[in-house]
TrEMBL record:
This is Nucleotide-diphospho-sugar transferase domain-containing protein. It comes from Hymenobacter fodinae. The lineage of its organism: Bacteria, Pseudomonadati, Bacteroidota, Cytophagia, Cytophagales. InterPro entries: Nucleotide-diphossugar_trans. It comes from the Bacteria.
Length: 291
């Protein structure tokens, strides 16, 4: 079996992003008997109200205290992914494909599941080497270089060759479940060493890389992690059109992939150019979106 896995816990904004992502999947992939969607949420009723009672969607039961336990010793919401994937691997054996809710599908992932079955590890996108990445990546490299952390019989180190992958996608075969405890332990060590949000994705990147090459999937979906300001408008769309057939078309009118690329282009300008644009009042801003 193949499983798409979403984590939509706590925030209505996160649930609303998930609606868009799931509806975009429906546009690119036919329903298949060997593929199910797992939604880990504390509000299944809201999903069923918008998406209906679909046989291809399951809502695994999670006890309230389990959500807190999944945050680990570091007490980080990012670490919920580890617990969710561990639960999925134990209860839904097969090919697991976790993705963040702020994603929009571009292509049918069927070929990816074939590669997962063959043992491939996927994350969303290779963000490059820490040593030459963005400002935060370079700070992390300088702070962590020279440190060592044991994990699963390996010694993890941050070196000039360490690559950071975006953890908006995490995909692997469920018989690799033993890696998840190691990812959690490594992430907790990393947070204890340097308490920055990206330690979770660094833990995945380091531990998966110890198993072999990590592949990425930027051509299969948009991951608009840089557009948090769009969340209120996405929620307005759901509030207005949530039970209507045109909900997906109303999401598409927001043109989030285009805005995602525009903001990234600005973010990736040399520092002096961004500073100059700020001084000239030309800093990139989210345009006013209407519903």
């Amino acid at each position: 079996m193949n499983y798409l896995i979403y984590l939509a816990y706590g925030s209505a904004d996160i649930r609303n992003e998930a609606f868009y992502s799931i509806l975009s999947y429906d546009q690119v992939a036919p329903k298949r008997p060997d593929t199910q969607i797992l939604i880990y949420t504390d509000d299944a009723a809201s999903f069923q109200q918008v998406l209906g009672h679909r046989p291809d969607i399951q809502y695994p039961a999670v006890e309230p205290m389990q959500w807190q336990a999944w945050r680990g010793a570091a007490n980080k919401v990012y670490l919920l992914k580890v617990g969710v994937l561990e639960h999925a691997a134990m209860h839904y054996p097969g090919n697991l494909f976790f993705l963040d809710t702020d994603t929009i599908w571009r292509q049918d992932p069927a070929p990816l599941f074939e590669h997962i079955a063959a043992g491939t590890f996927y994350m969303h996108q290779n963000e490059g080497r820490l040593i030459s990445g963005n400002t935060l990546s370079r700070k992390v490299y300088k702070h962590l270089r020279g440190s060592e952390w044991p994990s699963g019989g390996h010694i993890m180190r941050v070196t000039p060759d360490t690559e950071l992958f975006n953890s908006g996608v995490l995909a692997f075969r469920s018989d690799k479940v033993y890696l998840l405890r190691e990812v959690m332990a490594l992430a907790e060590q990393l947070y204890a060493t340097y308490n920055k949000h990206m330690m979770e994705q660094l833990a995945w990147s380091l531990r998966f890389a110890a198993e072999g090459a990590i592949e990425d999937v930027p051509n299969y979906l948009w991951h608009y992690w840089n557009l948090k300001d769009a969340r209120p408008v996405i929620s307005q769309v759901v509030e207005k059109y949530g039970t209507q057939p045109q909900l997906f078309l109303q999401f598409e009118r927001l043109e989030l992939p285009k805005l995602h690329q525009q903001e990234l282009a600005y973010r990736n300008l040399p520092g002096w150019q961004r500073t100059l644009r700020k001084l000239m009042g030309q800093r990139w801003k989210m345009p006013e979106l209407t519903v």
